[in-house]
Amino acid sequence: MRTIATASRGAVVGRVGYAELRARSNRLSGALLALGLKVGDRVGTLAWNTQHHLEVYHATMNAGLVCHTLNPRLTSAQLAAMINEAEDRMLAVAANLVGVLPDLLTLCPTIERVVVLDGAVDASIAARLAVPVEEIDGLVAAHGAPAAWGQFDEESAAGLCFTSGTTGKPKGVVFTHRSNYLHTLMSIQPDAYCLSAKDTILVAIPMFHANAWGLPFSAPAVGASLVLPGRELDGASLAALIRSENVTIAGGVQTVWIGLLDHLDATGGDVPSLERIIIGGSKCPDALIRRMEDRLGARVQTTWGMTEMSPLGTVDSVQLPPAAERSSGRPPIGVDLKLTSADGATLPEQRGVIGHLKVRGPSVIDRYFNAAASALDAEGYFDTGDLATIDDGGALTICGRSKDLIKSGGEWINPAEMEAIIGRDPRVGQVAVIGKTHPKWGERPVLVVELRQGETGDAPAFVDALRGKVADWWLPDEIVQLPRMPLAATGKIDKVRLRADYEHGELDRYVTVAR
User: Fold this and answer.
1) What is the mean pLDDT of the chain?
2) 305 pLDDT higher than 90
3) What confidence score (pLDDT) does residue 444 get?
4) Are strands 42-46 and 90-94 parallel, antiparallel or unpaired?
């Protein structure tokens, strides 16, 4: 029997088989319907990677309700904007997040009831709320009953997730039952995630972000065991979990694995069961990939995707030897890529050139939540906002975000090219290049680095690493060495905040003039 293990601080606190999980989720569906929720109603979740959260996933989606996952790291005002736009009727909240409810619910008039997950209700907080509050097990005991699943069209909404908003106002992305199912079939392919019943998968991607890359669906689809780490993604907790559960595959953004590496370097030991790490988010520096593979003894599998794609777009196949310099991989069946000019015209040559990347497929969004206009062009392609190139073998390399380009003296500078070069330096943990306003040139590049623990670096060395590899006028005017890079809620480097902090002088003490 394959199982789901939920953990806290590296220790397993709950374990359940898939059959029991299905039965519990089905009874929860009955309870939700008994309370008057109906097909198409949205249920918000403010929770971590736990068994209860997974039960809510299946209870809502399979009953025709819409599971609206919310990021607990956002402010009450940000959460309220999403809840109100979605018109959520119910909110499922982790017990250790109940403290946000008094402020949050005053901003959310559509919420009629709160269900508490992963712990007991705090009576003192519940008494301050104007809506009923109860624990999930109590709700099921009082109202739970077997429910008929799947009584709706496959194009019905199953999930709702708002984009991170790092490049603009967050937008709601709707996942349908059809798109979830087809995404699952795409992701489990041997040349994609390559999952099977022999695997034990650690899901270190938050379940509130793009369905945790679909792993809560794809792991059960092949009979793999799931390990859900709760909210603890620190190196010590992850190392303990990988060892105790014999994890073979782990998924998460690169910042998670930096924490694991630093922990193992500081304390010793290894994670011998780990065979593969699936990474996504922002492009991972080559030096970090080499460090991960050398220290962990696991293959790093690079991917690229977007919430709007459910989210898998391309993936590096583990069936092939790793390339010397990693791409973002190839698209699985069901994803089409196209490069265009800035004005949207399809480039006549699709290999070996840099263009604006568009994507098409059955798990790609067609329009944003509540939007009247389609998000697709006349041929059904979605504009990713990325610049990319495709090699002769069909592998995609993301060359940067079109919005990140720096216009200096009327000419474009691509930050991603410099980030890739500096990212090869083994001293560098994370790197970003941002534009600063300039009275003469319009914008000039600023290099921002976060060094690995115990490492030191000097500005001239970083400039020298770029010299001769990029045009001289691309060389950054300033180097910012930060003790900690600001991250968005999804774990990516938050360039919007970086630019704002720089412009407001908050990074001045870390700045070195490069030349």
Assistant:
1) 93
2) yes
3) 92
4) parallel
- Give 103-109's long-range contacts (Cβ < 8 A, gap of 24+): 103/76, 104/76, 104/79, 104/80, 105/129, 105/130, 105/131, 107/76, 107/77, 107/80, 108/80, 108/83, 108/84, 109/84
pLDDT tops 70 at residue 95: yes
Point out which residues pair with 481 in neighbouring strands: 449
Distances (CA, A) of 157 to 85, 150, 352, 364: 15, 12, 38, 14
- Amino acid 1: pLDDT: 54
| 444 CB neighbour count, 10 Å cutoff | 20
Supply the residues annotated as catalytic: 163, 308, 407, 412
Rounded CA-CA distance 457/319 in Å is 38
Strand partners, 227: 5, 202
Helix (H) or strand (E) run with residue 288 in it: helix 286-296
Q: Alpha-carbon distance 201 to 452, whole Å?
A: 27
Q: Is the peptide bond before 476 cis (omega within 30 degrees of 0)?
A: no
Cα maximum dimension of the chain: 71
CA distances from 93 to 25, 56, 63 (A): 16, 11, 20
